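[job 4471] stage=fold_predict status=RUNNING
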Amino acid sequence: MKKEEVPQDKGNLSNINMKELVYATDEKGNYTTALSTGWEPKTIALSNSIDEISERIAVAKEQVENNERSPIYYFMEVSRMDLSILSSYVGMWQWRVKRDFKPENFKGLSDKVLQKYADAFDISINELKNFKTN
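[job 4471] inference complete, writing structure tokens
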């Protein structure tokens, strides 16, 4: 897109008076940078994505409250991770991490394993062990 055509729609960044750096072409066809306050399709997609993440976090919280999942699952969602990412962060097989989503397995985890999870979520072991859903 040409530099003068860079969208200046009201976006997520306009609320905090910031602009996004984007690439565009100048009058000679060379790539250059330009500032944009937002682009409506991107704003809609981002908003939809944030809504979906919020819904997944709420479901995870409810599952922990109902003793269907362990706090590890909730913090994975809050941290915007998936099983693959969390598995690589803690250095364990995916099947092992998935097993730790079960409350009965979570209760038997050693502090060493809990520390790996706590480090991945940037929280303390105490916060992980004593997670309150309220």
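[job 4471] summary: Residues 3-38 form one domain.
[job 4471] exit 0
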